[in-house]
């Protein structure tokens, strides 16, 4: 479950409470700032989700030095109230209970956070997260 490529400076990071198991709640929490003494800004975010890994694509050429696209988005989730992906200030939470039909399925995800002025592109990417649903 660890990230497989680190991002650039100031990247969002994530914490996973436990490995995902079918029929059991699974939670991932991303923070949009590694350290912050006060409440973190609620910058817009989206979660890229895929079933396959890709070779990291450096995004220096588009103005995001140190950022790598590691998940080719097959699905994009936006934080919304009462959904499996929510955002509260600078924290983005995925709360999901995998179905038994997903046992053994690999998922890859990466959070994109829009932060004006952080770099030429105005966004940061978290490291990618690889999970496999267990029984």
User: What is the assembly state of the chains in this entry?
Assistant: single chain
Beta-strand residue fraction: 35-45%
Which range best describes the helical content: under 10%, 10-25%, 25-40%, 40-55%, 55-70% or over 70%? under 10%
Structural class estimated from helices and strands? mainly beta
Beta-strand segment tally: 11
Uncertain runs are 1-9
If helices are DSSP runs of H or I spanning 4 or more residues, what is the number of helices?
A: 0
Residue-averaged pLDDT = 87
| Distance between the amino and carboxyl termini | 16 Å
Largest sheet: 5 strands, antiparallel
Principal-axis shape equals: globular
> What is the gyration radius calculated from CA atoms?
15 Å
Q: What is the string of SSEs from the N terminus onward?
A: EEEEEEEEEEE
How would you describe the overall organization of this protein?
- The structure is a single chain.
- The chain has strands spanning 13-16, 26-31, 45-50, 57-58, 68-69, 75-77, 85-88, 91-96, 106-114, 123-125, 129-132.
- It is an all-beta fold and 135 residues long.
- It starts with 12 loop residues before the first strand and ends with a strand.
Give a concise summary.
The chain has 135 residues and is mainly beta.
Give the arrangement of secondary structure elements.
Layout: E1 13-16, E2 26-31, E3 45-50, E4 57-58, E5 68-69, E6 75-77, E7 85-88, E8 91-96, E9 106-114, E10 123-125, E11 129-132
Antiparallel strand pairs: 1-2, 2-8, 3-6, 3-9, 4-5, 7-8, 9-10, 9-11
């Amino acid at each position: 479950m660890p990230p497989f490529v680190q991002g650039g400076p100031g990247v969002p990071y994530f914490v996973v409470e436990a490995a995902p198991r079918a029929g059991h709640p699974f939670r991932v929490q991303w923070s949009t700032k590694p350290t912050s003494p006060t409440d973190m800004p609620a910058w817009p975010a989206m979660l890229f989700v895929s079933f396959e890994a890709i070779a990291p694509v450096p995004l220096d050429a588009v103005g995001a030095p140190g950022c790598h696209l590691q998940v080719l988005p097959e699905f994009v989730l936006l934080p919304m109230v009462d959904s499996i992906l929510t955002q509260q200030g600078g924290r983005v939470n995925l709360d999901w209970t995998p179905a038994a039909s997903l046992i053994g399925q690999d998922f890859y995800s990466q959070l994109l956070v829009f932060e004006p002025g952080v770099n030429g592109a105005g966004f940061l990417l978290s490291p990618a997260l690889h999970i496999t649903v267990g029984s």
